[in-house]
Amino acid sequence: MREIKEETGLDVLVDYLHAICTKYHATFGNGDRAQTICFFFKCSMISGDLHIDNNETYDLRFFARESLPILFNKQHQDMLDDVLEERKGAYR
Fold this sequence. Notes:
The protein has one domain: Nucleoside Triphosphate Pyrophosphohydrolase. The two termini are 23 Å apart. The longest helix has 11 residues, at 74-84. By secondary structure, it is α+β, with helices and mostly antiparallel strands. Strands 2-1-3 form a three-stranded mixed sheet. It is globular. The chain contains two helices and three strands, in the order αββαβ. Strand 1 (10-27) and strand 2 form a beta hairpin. Helix content is 20%, strand content 39%.
């Protein structure tokens, strides 16, 4: 909840755990490789205004389900699929 507030300006309550995603790897522009680990929660917004924290975020927006953007990596796409298919407690 603290990280969401810091990076978006929104206050949220955690509803439940959607997924734990640990089986993904990324290669960065400089050639470094890393295992990316994400604990993905469903949250409800309770207050605040969406704002950009120039230290960690550069673009934030809300999207309707029918106009979702194409995501840039498999881990994020799998997490979005969990939401759209209403999966809870997935482990990848």
